[in-house]
Amino acid sequence: MNEPTTLAQVLASLPEEERIILTLHYLRGLSSADIATMLSVPERAVDAVISAGKARLSALLGL
Q1: CA-CA distance, 37 to 25, in Å (whole number)?
Q2: 63 or 28, which is more confident
Q3: Is the C or the N end of the chain the one with fewer CB within 10 Å?
Q4: d(Cα 22, Cα 13) in Å, to the nearest integer?
Q5: Which domains does the chain have, with CATH numbers?
């Protein structure tokens, strides 16, 4: 099976919470604080997802 190669395919392959946080941060331009408030989660949890997600996206996209 081929690995996802487009950003949309890669995002679709992520767990829902990670996909939502990364989409809100990178595609909607929201801050970690805004996302944390919106999702009722600690800001440090959002920061952790963004940091890990950035590395995962880079790896999955071959960057």
Answers
A1: 13
A2: 28
A3: N
A4: 13
A5: 7-61 (1.10.10.10)
